[in-house]
Amino acid sequence: MNLVTSLSFGEEHLKRLKNNFKSVNIYMYNNIEEAKEKLYDADVFVTYGFDMTNKLIEKMERLKWIQCFSTGIDVLPLDKIKEKGILLTNVRGIHGIPIAEYVMAVILNYRIEAFKFYEQQKNKIWKRKSDLEEVYNKAITIIGTGTIGKEIARKAKAFDMRTIGVNTNGRNVDYFDEIYSNSELNYALSKGDYIVQTVPLTKSTYKMLGKEQFESMKATAFFINIARGKTVDEKVLIEALNNNIIKAAAIDVFEIEPLPKESSLWAMENVFITPHISGLSNMYINRAIPILEHNLKAYLQKCGKYINMIDFNKKY
Amino acid sequence: MNLVTSLSFGEEHLKRLKNNFKSVNIYMYNNIEEAKEKLYDADVFVTYGFDMTNKLIEKMERLKWIQCFSTGIDVLPLDKIKEKGILLTNVRGIHGIPIAEYVMAVILNYRIEAFKFYEQQKNKIWKRKSDLEEVYNKAITIIGTGTIGKEIARKAKAFDMRTIGVNTNGRNVDYFDEIYSNSELNYALSKGDYIVQTVPLTKSTYKMLGKEQFESMKATAFFINIARGKTVDEKVLIEALNNNIIKAAAIDVFEIEPLPKESSLWAMENVFITPHISGLSNMYINRAIPILEHNLKAYLQKCGKYINMIDFNKKY
């Protein structure tokens, strides 16, 4: 049985995997180009996902299972994978901590006006500001109350923020003071000083934040997207930021990535751009490997008890 | 009875104070220059503190009580105030929230390497970084476990950081995983990934962080000072930052303020400088006024039940 990975998880993890799974031939590469060498012999393929195409899947005739090391599997050719009867699992659940750290970082960065003081420092300017606005008692509306949304809410509570969640049916979730269902989205948005988009990209979340949603937000709202660019109508977002419909934004994900040089987002003073890094950290591989190990065991035992098996109907 | 203030707390608070204290003549000014008009008739003086001098105290012959609207009262001529038998109170306790927000902001700012991505954005550069270091499970050593230290520890726990406190006798305090006494300071410093200085400036804390202390810290340590510049040997701090004794720092307070243009701190790439703003926020006056009101009532009733009466021996 051959396991091929187009991502390197490091020699140490490789060694342990080889030790723990002696019946598996493991071929580790740094990218899909290098992996070509063994790709078409793979029974199991480990990937970040973005390197998969319809054509590739067709050619990987032995492929039975893809372990995706991302959570968003919208970049994969899902229909083809389903058609071929290939099992697909992801690493959902491991992003809660780094993404919640990122979200609190951009909120607090905005709170202390860090970039203003950074520029002052460059010019050796000592200029105080006494009306910096605390996050204390401010409301944060979090769209999606899964692992990521919940971890953000948990941290926000330590800042005595009021946490407002939005999920499909309005069910209660720990660390949220209020929860609304999808049908009450606009109302939930109207209450937030900070708005965080965390939901996966599916047919029903595609451009779910459009004109009506941004117009529901406070004029002072600070918008954060760490989910997927396509869950937002980016053109509408840019207009909202340019026309004082909302105040500012921190954006980690975009309709097209890398964000094209032509995008007006780059130069907007009320926008902080990061290159899709909110989920990345030194802990990433360490948290993903146990999922691979568990699923590999399940695969070998044919017990079917996989972690994070993708439901092709829900697409997450 | 005359109350003079060299700081403006706004018309709304003034109106309410006048209503609640009809026997008190309240004269509100924007600064000490304007206040000169009524200064020498003051029985009670409200000030941020930095405008008080020995000479001024001598001339304010009716002065019986100073309500300082700062927490650090080291800037006041304490010996003269004591000699004259003038009561001194401060607003200790109101800085916990804004300063803890600031501390978490600079820690998380460093965590997501915000300034790097800010510069990349200016140049429309999309360059990802996968080894950003989480704060999860990192250790934070907080020198001082009063209102501020405790509030920082509370927030740090929501990030699953290990919280290490240092106080005079090593007594336990909520939200701290470990506490050390002053005599174990260097050991406590050696354990911290982040080091936060929060203690007031007194004779015994003057330059308490010197060569030995910085050399006790990890080479990867990130140092934060939101207390007083003079609790640190600034020359030693600069050397430590230049010679990789520690990694980086966020500094809000300095030996001399405003920080002189000549200071090498301004241009150091591993230093983030803010102009003594960590305790300031939109909520400042709102939190200080109730202390003034309480103490004014105590003053009029001669009951002696003041909040935050300064002990001239301890000097805080």
Mind explaining what this structure looks like?
Two copies of one chain form a homodimer. In chain A, helix 5 crosses helix 7. The mean pLDDT of chain A is 97. Chain A is an alpha/beta fold and 316 residues long. In chain A, strands 8-7-6-9-10-11-12 form a seven-stranded parallel sheet. Chain A folds into two domains: 2-94 and 282-301, NAD(P)-binding Rossmann-like Domain (Rossmann fold, 3-Layer(aba) Sandwich), CATH 3.40.50; 96-273, Rossmann fold. The first copy, chain A, is elongated and about 65 Å long. The first copy, chain A, contains eleven helices and twelve strands. The two termini of chain A are 27 Å apart. Chains A and B meet through helix 5, helix 6 and helix 7 of A and helix 5, helix 6 and helix 7 of B.
Gyration radius of chain A, in Å: 21 Å
CATH architecture of the largest domain in chain A: 3-Layer(aba) Sandwich
**How many E strands of chain A?**
12
Strand content of chain A: 15-25%
Oligomer designation? homodimer
Please give the most extensive interface between any two protein chains, plus how many residues each contributes. A-B, 52 and 53 residues
How would you summarize what this structure contains?
2 copies of one chain form a homodimer. With 316 residues, chain A is an alpha/beta fold.
